[in-house]
């Protein structure tokens, strides 16, 4: 992810936080009468920061261990199974966790006026976000393809052996000679996509990178909202079940995102930055929620509209990514189509991921 991408994302998050701080002055609905205990709630919220941070970091790192654990490498069958599980998790996150929250907020009785009650904004924003994700996905892939394969930056594809990667893979020289090494000016390093065609494999690699970046944006957007909501709560009865559920939620999402990052074959430094950014998003959101808990009112029209629209947009992004870039891409892969056993395990893994995330909706 380039410096411009990080700057744009950081600016968007700062704008979100600024708008949320405006919510405290627009209380039109009475806040729920909850069993409030600020001291106990603070302890639970600090515990939530630690547990969610650790769970997210562990989840996103597991797929990346493929660099040292051969069984977890993208070219192995087990990776298809892991990605199917990740797709199920992301799909359930969108349908079971994020979209219902968006619908609830954008149809809240606290939103006065006919426009909110007479138009299905949650579904509309979700649809628009999915279409925009398709356009961004297509345009970004097209842009990177032209950038790498045309003009002065056209790549020079050569067959060569890379002793360092060969030692990491633990494979023979003959196996490693099948890898094609792509040299570009845009990427200061070497890409080693598997496959017989350098251009085709490099194009796939670029697409995986676009997928992982767009997916992280979708996950980060709703993670901030989740964190602020938990951090702003002062009811231990509300925080306790949320803490456990969100810990597992963050772990499973980390596995999903980590699988995509691993397949994108980013440089180690880039992959670590993306992993760190994901791991910190919800804990930072909780910390912000703690800081504004005395003034923040989640029933104000401003908060409901902002959070509802962002949740709906996140659900559209996640639905598109799960169905198009994860499920369709892998389940229609000739390798899976020709392996009945792999299809069986992948379908079971998809259902398991979706099922586990759906069960968590009981608490979060």
TrEMBL record:
Pfam families given for it? Zip
Q: Which family does it belong to?
A: Belongs to the ZIP transporter (TC 2.A.5) family.
- The species this protein belongs to is Trapa natans
- Which UniProt keywords are given for this protein, alphabetically ordered? Ion transport, Membrane, Signal, Transmembrane, Transmembrane helix, Transport
Molecular function GO terms recorded: zinc ion transmembrane transporter activity
In the bilayer, the protein is annotated as: Multi-pass membrane protein
Q: State the InterPro entries in the record.
A: ZIP, Zn/Fe_permease_fun/pln
Secretion signal span? 1-25
Its ancestry begins with: Eukaryota, Viridiplantae, Streptophyta, Embryophyta, Tracheophyta
- Name it: Uncharacterized protein
**Location relative to the cell:** Membrane
GO cellular component term of the entry, any: plasma membrane
Q: Which NCBIfam families match?
A: zip
Identify the domain of life.
Eukaryota
* TM regions (residue ranges): 44-66, 78-99, 119-140, 271-292, 312-332, 344-363
**Sorted alphabetically, which PANTHER family does this protein's record hold?**
ZINC TRANSPORTER 5, ZINC/IRON TRANSPORTER
Question: Does the record bear Kinase in its keywords?
Answer: no
